[in-house]
Amino acid sequence: MNYKNAFIYTEDFKFVSGGFSVEDGKFCDVLIEKEDAVDFRGAYVIPGLIDVHNHGNSNADFSDGSYEGDVKMARYLAGVGVTSFAPATMTLPYEVIAKALEAGLRLKNTPEAGCARLLGVQMEGPFFSEKKKGAQNGEYLRLPDFAAFRRLYEDSEGLISIVDLAPELEGSVEFVERAKALCTVSIAHTDSDYEHAKAAIDAGVTHLTHLYNAMPPIHHRKPGVIGAASENEAVSAELICDGIHVHPASVRMAFKLFGAERMVLISDALRCCGMPDGEYELGGQQVFLAENVARLADGTIAGSATNLFDCMRNAVRFGIPREDAIRAATWNPARQIHALDRVGSIANGKLADFVVCDAELNRKAVWLGGKEL
Ligand SMILES: [Zn+2]
After folding, report:
1. Could you give the residue range(s) of every CATH 2.30.40.10 domain in the chain?
2. How far apart are the CA of 148 and the centre of ligand 1, in A?
């Protein structure tokens, strides 16, 4: 199928007018306009978004370990233009994490029609600090344990694409040195000072999970995790851009501090995403959703109820240039989970997952593998 008269978001991270074709579910002849083509009438075409940190939606949570739930999640995501994802586990017993990975692997290997592609998993916990556990369940916290991680990694055929840890915990540097050969290693849920964070980054950490949230703030004499991550070009930072977890000015500050090439927008969405206000469950704890904010009983913000497409639009609303916001929701997350060979941009040979929008990024239609949903 051929398409023409579109503004295509290219690998130069800007819009270029032209057309493209799709063959066998993949892009080809990108920027070439053919006569016999569907006319997009000046619409904006962006790559399908990639959420590398979300727990659930539609009343399903990845940690439930339910294949049917994962299918529900993946269908919702594809429908809102998030055509690939790496769902996140939680701080839970290893056998519960293993069950979630097993269900995820089944979805990856036998995708159902209309499902976003499950490209990996972010293992969020249990190697976290008690003090910054946030909405993670303190009962299941553990010190970094490479043998336990490797078992989960191998049993799931390498499904884990990002593993998180708090760098101040005993054994964290050794863990990073060994885990980095298998997947991306990220700092998260930490009370670390600058020195411990820098040591972990020097050992091979290249990712920072939800910048600002569940870590000490920046202090001019205690630059902490944020200071250590920002000054190392190898580290990219996730940002929850639901308008609740991070103030708009702090969103702008993050893009200045890290640069658009190192920002990764995420949803961190919970099972209440795409659901009405009410009471839900998260890692064995109650969560209350009201006016788009999900909180634990004690008032702690638990996660978001906003999908990544809306987070990307929020970023633009907060003053991030449109092209930078798109990059942070497509190319950058694909790079962090080592999936740039298949997704993350509109380029010849990549999977034809794309979203047709207007100039304000209002979503009009979603294509998955070259088929309109
Ligand atoms: Zn999370």
Report:
1. 2-45+360-372
2. 20
Spacing, Cα 144 to ligand 1 middle (Å): 18
Token readout for 368 is 């998955």
Name beta bridge partners: 239: 265
Tell me how far the alpha carbon of residue 55 lies from the centroid of ligand 1, in angstroms.
6
- CATH architecture observed for domain 49-343: Alpha-Beta Barrel (3.20)
Query: pTM value?
Result: 0.96
Q: pLDDT by residue (tens digit) across 333-369?
A: 999 999 999 999 999 999 999 999 999 999 999 999 9
Catalytic residue numbers, as ranges:
268
Alpha helices in the chain (DSSP H): 67-79, 94-109, 146-155, 172-179, 194-203, 224-230, 248-258, 308-317, 322-329, 331-336
Cα(54) to ligand 1 centroid in Å equals 6
Q: Where are the CATH 3.20.20.140 domain residues in the chain?
A: 49-343
2-45+360-372 architecture in CATH?
A: Roll (2.30)
